[in-house]
Amino acid sequence: MTAALLAQANYPAPMHGLTLAHYLFVAAAMFAIGLIGFTTRRNLIIMFLCTELMFQAAGIALIAFGRYHLNHTGETFVIFVLTVAAAEAAMALALVVLLFRRRETLDAEEWQQLKG
Amino acid sequence: MVRAGTSPCRLPLPACPSILLALFPGPRLDQVVNQVALYVLLALGAAGVLVALPRKGLNPQPIGMILAAAAGGLLVLLMSLKAGEHRPNLFFYIFAAVGLGSALRVVTHHKPVYAALYFIMTIFASAGLFVILSAEFLAFALVIVYAGAILITYLFVIMLATQSPAEEESEVLAEYDTRAREPLAGVFVGFVLLAVLTSMMFRGVDDLPGPGPAGADQSLLAQYPGKVMAPAETRPEIEAMPGKKFAAALDEQKVRNIEAVAYRLLADHPGAIEIAGVILLMAMLGAVVLARKQVQLDEEAKARHAASLASEVTRSEGAR
């Protein structure tokens, strides 16, 4: 029993929809947590960490669907997600440093006059 | 508006806008998880997250974390009971628990450095999930790119952009780290989104084309999961194979995960790779330009700075 649980005993096998649902729930929950963090935290750096959480969630969903449909397209898309995440991190952190040097605070509410 | 007769929805109503389907998920959702339990547990999780978010005054974070974890765990457990033999293997539960738990901690921790470290835990957990899903290459890429590069950048910036505490004072947390902004509204929006996402997804699960639909590469199954190495005797041929021959090898499942991903990437999305390269270049240039810019402190910040210095001077004089 334990061996069957531990080893991926029934693999390789097509993934059942109910198994897929588990992974989708994890992805959705992670996305929601990231969204909550983005809307409620006031530290600019933590806000950007939360966007990375949302990227992660999207990646898990993409790979789970790729496994379900038995092709590698989901994985190739996650590569692009990684690229965009890296670019976003570089730009966002440069901006954060710039903003910090101007006001010496990371509080997002300090920059309220930015809203249009 | 959806016209009667042409309505794509399956409820026996003359016309039902698809939003109604989300509100009344019906028996199809019940196949994945009991819908009453789903919404009750989501509400419980929302309450837990709300308690766990940082705020001034009484802030029983551990209780909130336990509440949220119990709700999430119970929900996944109920799903597994419904799934029966189709439940995922044991490692899924471990990685999901670690991933979601540390994701919650990223959002609720007072100190940015710890939040970043918990985010690294999330990365490792999702890399584990990727391995279970037979995406070995991406699991390693994730650890290298995220945990190795992006998170280190974050840590550098956190250390650059925090005020050092004045001497003789112990470290004080910044006010903006200890008080969440509109936690009730944020948690409400987040969990309503989660409820809608889960009910829509779970409703659609048995609508998906079956596992491995026609046209999918059924033969790929043989290399799932964890068949990291192909049989040794086939290796040299594959490495010398160009184009179409490689596609044939892909069909005969003689390739590793990384080779298959590379083939899909280069065969199907060659243009997107170029664009990704341009995006990375522009991000690098942009970051360099932004970081080199000379900035002056705002008038306001200067005034604040002067005020804090003045108060320090008067305090030290008073002490003397």
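Chain B touches chain A through 123 residues (CB under 8 Å).
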